[in-house]
């Protein structure tokens, strides 16, 4: 690479006439089209300019040398595997490193430690056990540790002690079926055979909290109701003991308060139905008393029998954190049953009373549930068995009111975890992180159709089914894939980078033969970028050609993608978390995104037509198609000044619009036609320069000064055959010719042509064979100094990678993120808006329940977390609630108070709120908002009635119905006065209007 020390003379934007004279005179001199006197005047002007340059050369030369020294001494921070200044380097992108992408792969079971970082995953059909120490981002294959200590794979299940991530128990094979248990006390480095005596298949496993030692419980399953429970005392020599249970065990859990209540809970199935059993375990004798409570059938009163052993496929069990098997007031359990019968579904059992929270009519089937919370308040996730074979998506359900709400309180995921592609089975296994802030979902293609398919169905795996470990930060609303993804990257299709270079997006294509080829959009955020990638969208592109664009405005997180040659154009307003189809109504050849007068604009090129879309803050509105006057179209660019330029596909012509795409003018063809790539230099007040180049073997870079009559001017670029132009001030052109690839650069493109314009070829660090030839735009620039290009070859360890070049010599204005607000602003008091001051919360007549209470407030910054206090007195000495809130919508924060908060009727309450984690992530105690108050309405008086038969209690703890007449009597007098005044005002107003019309 040649690096030249050039003195940069910024163009005089306000002296447009003089600038245009210099530009035009330079063109005339190069092309020989002006008279001698004009050439002489231009030459004299240049001599005067060069004299000025020479007078300052020494001073500025020292400055440039200092800049270069700083550039070389302080490397930039691009997302690069081998970061370097002034040379190309590859970026770390999603791969099989750390088993992020892994095929074939299934996740049949997963466990998380109490540190929130230690994970284990079981892949049954591929006989693999994986461990992660960084929250599931990367994984190590620890299968050999098990087999080295005598275990037989596959492993079938795994459990971690609830208070020790290093104490692990795995169900391993005996005769090809789940029949043995190995334990590890050092995080899976070494394993011990427990010599499990189970006579039938092991169907469930759990580890107790530490009480001076650990107990390990397993359940077995015969398929006919003849299973048992065994407990291994992992103290002293250790031994297994049958607990004298009869029934096929579907799930087993130790009580979270096992040290105090000694309780063990099971879900089992028999010929008569499915039941919950609770046993009190004698830790010394290693026996369990199953006779103190239950069994309780998993059904509701009058609903008929529960599923039987001949119907149940699987089941799951969850206990609140304060569950106690010996306290009826804390004996609450959540159960899911997967069975082809009317009474399957999700249940809550309050001691011995069952409530159906979600029925599961076919084809709905629940694979697992996950509960986070206590007896009085919590949240519940449910993952389905079935996945969509055509979209590789599995539905997850969420409710934050599992204690009071029936089915309508369930919310379906908006962007699903992936799994079930090409198979239709996803078997979603959902879990919460220890603090409840994160949800995880693991998927597999296990073929579990009926009870007889267990456990053999787990041995089924489908290649490239998109099974993966997915993560949700918003209670299951949206999911991104982290790792163990059974997918493939055949090649990278496009990339996009935010203006600050702090977020990179990639589109990858899977063209594996014989299956649905699911493509991916990836995201990495920094600092540093490139180290952790998440898949933010899995889709099936019909053209295997995805293109990406950012909004190119400050810190706007919006990202767009289109599947070329289709009408599939989508926007994510939140950095890839959610996606909306913005329906342009045309097929996309290329598209450009910009802001004009701070209004988002999209210009979609459909061959030789464009369609303009504008966003009003809610939806995209589309103007009629406009003809570019070209015969074909290849690429498009748009500027914030409303300049639109389009390059054609073969004839070498450019069409440009100065009025935002309403009308176009067409230029002549460039000297070397082909697929045209363009850039519009709009920095000058009254001048527009268009740069164009083609992929023709003889094409260099040309310029066209709008308003001149001198045609295209060759700029003398070293390269030939261009596939992308990029510019802020410095102009770059990516070319590939004769097996050689580089990027040409000029620091002063406005000098237009030789000898006044000078070029460098940026090729340092590029590997042999790299080809920057992705269409329609192979080169991107961010932050004014970071260049990005994709090697257009198959994606391997050495080829098809994303490349980055950090150009510290570029004088382009570098994007600097706005400084964060001061701490005073970040932690200033929020403004509460709802419930309004002295609001009255109504009581529902039908049930007697208190109405919904939704707290709303405003804050000048998008804080991450708030703290809300609720009290019975204004001094907050009679506290009712201290709630930490992480709002889903930080722009409009709200929090709906669960019904489980026991507010009193006729009681006045006071509330206030403050920031506890600022928009920058900084934690602290912010200033309190003003104190607001609301009151709960008084209950209507009960009617006096004659004694009679006691009414049946409504299901799920509902209140008795109150008559309307009692409510009317209870209306305050001031409301009656207002009604009377209104009745008087209406006829007077009507009379006045009628007189006015006459």
Structural features, described:
- With 998 residues, this protein is mainly beta.
- Helix content is 10%, strand content 36%.
- The chain is built from seven helices and 65 strands.
- Strands 38, 39, 40, 41 and 42 form a five-stranded antiparallel beta sheet that branches. A five-stranded mixed beta sheet has the order 59-65-64-61-62, with no helix packed on it.
- Strand 22 (366-373) and strand 23 form a beta hairpin.
- The radius of gyration is 35 Å and the shape is globular.
- The model is unreliable at 1-70, 72-83 and 944-967 (pLDDT under 50).
Largest sheet: 5 strands, antiparallel
Radius of gyration: 35 Å
Beta-strand segment tally: 65
Roughly what is the average pLDDT, rounded to an integer? Answer: 87
What helical percentage do the residues reach? under 10%
Tally of separate helices: 7
CA distance, first residue to last residue: 88 Å
Amount of beta strand: 35-45%
What is the 3D form? globular
Low-confidence stretches: 1-70, 72-83, 944-967
Task: Indicate the structural class.
Answer: mainly beta
């Amino acid at each position: 690479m040649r690096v030249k020390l050039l003195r940069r003379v910024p163009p005089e934007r306000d002296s447009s006439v003089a600038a245009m004279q210099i530009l035009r005179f330079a063109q005339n001199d190069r092309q020989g089209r002006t008279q001698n006197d004009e050439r002489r005047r231009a030459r004299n002007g240049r001599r005067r300019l060069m004299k000025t340059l020479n007078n300052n050369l020494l001073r500025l030369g020292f400055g440039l040398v200092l800049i270069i020294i700083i550039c070389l001494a302080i490397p930039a921070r691009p997302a690069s595997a081998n970061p370097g200044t002034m040379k190309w380097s590859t970026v770390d992108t999603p791969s099989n490193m750390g088993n992020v992408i892994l095929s074939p792969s299934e996740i049949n079971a997963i466990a998380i430690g109490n540190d929130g970082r230690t994970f284990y995953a079981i892949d049954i059909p591929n006989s693999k056990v994986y461990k992660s120490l960084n929250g599931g981002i990367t994984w190590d294959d620890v299968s050999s540790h098990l087999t080295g200590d005598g275990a037989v794979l596959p492993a079938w299940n795994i459990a971690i002690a609830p208070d020790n991530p290093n104490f692990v128990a795995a169900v391993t094979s005996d005769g090809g079926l789940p029949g043995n248990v190995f334990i590890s006390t050092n995080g899976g480095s070494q394993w011990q055979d427990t010599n499990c005596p189970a006579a039938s298949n092991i169907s469930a496993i759990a580890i107790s909290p530490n009480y001076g030692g650990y107990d390990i419980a397993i359940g077995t399953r015969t398929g006919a109701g003849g299973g048992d429970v065994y407990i291994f005392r992992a103290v002293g020599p250790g031994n297994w003991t049958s607990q004298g249970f009869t029934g096929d065990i579907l799930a087993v859990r130790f009580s979270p308060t096992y040290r105090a209540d000694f309780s063990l809970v099971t879900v089992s199935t028999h010929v008569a139905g499915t039941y919950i059993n609770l046993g009190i375990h004698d830790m010394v004798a290693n026996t369990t008393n199953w006779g103190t409570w239950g069994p309780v059938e998993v059904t509701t009163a009058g609903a008929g029998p529960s599923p039987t052993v001949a119907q149940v496929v699987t089941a799951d069990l969850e206990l609140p954190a304060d569950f106690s098997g010996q306290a009826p007031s804390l004996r609450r359990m959540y159960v899911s049953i997967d069975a082809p019968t009317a009474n399957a579904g999700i249940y809550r059992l309050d001691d011995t009373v069952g409530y159906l929270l979600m029925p599961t009519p076919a084809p709905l089937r629940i694979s697992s549930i996950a509960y986070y919370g206590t007896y009085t308040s919590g949240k519940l996730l449910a993952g389905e068995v079935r996945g969509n074979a055509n979209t590789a998506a599995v539905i997850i359900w969420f409710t934050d009111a599992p204690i009071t709400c029936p089915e309508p309180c369930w919310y379906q995921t908006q962007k699903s975890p992936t799994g079930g592609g090409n198979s239709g089975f996803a078997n979603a296994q959902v879990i919460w992180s220890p603090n409840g802030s994160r949800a995880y979902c693991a998927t597999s293609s296990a073929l579990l159709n009926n009870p007889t398919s267990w456990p053999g169905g787990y041995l089924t795996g489908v290649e490239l089914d998109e099974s993966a470990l997915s993560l949700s930060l918003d209670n299951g609303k949206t999911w991104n894939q982290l790792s163990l993804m059974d997918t493939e990257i055949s090649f990278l299709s496009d990339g996009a980078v935010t203006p600050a270079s702090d977020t990179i997006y990639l589109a990858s294509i899977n063209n594996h033969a014989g299956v649905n080829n699911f493509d991916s959009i990836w995201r990495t955020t920094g600092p540093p970028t490139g180290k952790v990638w998440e898949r933010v969208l899995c889709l099936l592109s019909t053209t295997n050609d995805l293109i990406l664009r950012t909004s190119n405005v400050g810190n706007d997180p919006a990202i767009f993608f289109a599947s070329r040659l289709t009408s599939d154009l989508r926007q994510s307003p939140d950095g890839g978390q959610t996606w909306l189809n913005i329906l342009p109504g045309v097929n996309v050849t290329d598209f450009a995104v910009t802001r004009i007068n701070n209004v988002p604009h999209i210009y979609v090129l459909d061959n030789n037509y464009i369609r303009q879309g504008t966003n009003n803050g809610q939806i995209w509105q589309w103007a009629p198609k406009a003809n570019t006057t070209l015969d074909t179209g290849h690429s498009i660019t748009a500027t914030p000044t409303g300049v639109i330029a389009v390059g054609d596909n073969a004839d070498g012509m450019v069409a440009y619009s100065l009025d935002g795409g309403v009308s176009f003018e067409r230029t002549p063809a460039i000297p070397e036609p082909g697929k045209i790539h363009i850039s519009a230099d709009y920095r000058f007040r009254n001048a527009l320069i268009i740069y164009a180049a083609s992929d023709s073997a003889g094409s260099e870079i040309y310029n066209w000064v709008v308003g001149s009559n001198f045609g295209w001017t060759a700029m003398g670029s070293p390269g030939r055959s261009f596939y992308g132009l990029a510019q802020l001030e410095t102009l770059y052109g990516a070319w590939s010719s004769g097996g050689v690839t580089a990027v040409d650069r000029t620091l002063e493109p406005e000098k237009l042509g030789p000898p006044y314009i000078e070029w460098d070829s940026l090729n340092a660090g590029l590997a042999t064979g790299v080809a920057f030839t992705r269409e329609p735009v192979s080169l991107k620039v961010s932050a004014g100094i970071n260049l990005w290009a994709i090697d257009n070859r198959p994606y391997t360890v050495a080829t098809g990678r994303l490349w980055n070049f950090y150009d510290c010599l570029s004088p382009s204005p570098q994007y600097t993120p706005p400084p964060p607000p001061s701490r005073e602003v970040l932690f200033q008091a929020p403004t509460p808006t709802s419930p309004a001051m002295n609001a009255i919360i109504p009581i529902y007549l039908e049930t007697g329940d208190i109405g919904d209470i939704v707290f709303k407030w405003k804050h000048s910054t998008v804080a991450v977390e708030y703290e809300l206090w609720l009290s019975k007195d204004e001094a907050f000495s009679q506290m009712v609630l201290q709630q930490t809130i992480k709002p889903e919508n930080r722009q409009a924060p709200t929090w709906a108070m669960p019904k489980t908060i026991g507010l009193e009727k006729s009681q006045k309450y006071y509330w206030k709120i403050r920031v506890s984690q600022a928009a920058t992530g900084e934690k602290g105690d912010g200033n309190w908002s003003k104190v607001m108050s609301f009151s709960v309405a008084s209950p209507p008086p009960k009617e006096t009635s004659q004694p009679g038969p006691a009414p049946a209690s409504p299901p799920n703890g509902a209140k008795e119905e109150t008559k309307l007449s009692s409510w009317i009597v209870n209306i305050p007098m001031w409301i009656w006065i207002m009604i009377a005044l209104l009745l008087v005002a209406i006829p007077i107003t009507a009379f006045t209007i009628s007189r006015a019309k006459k």
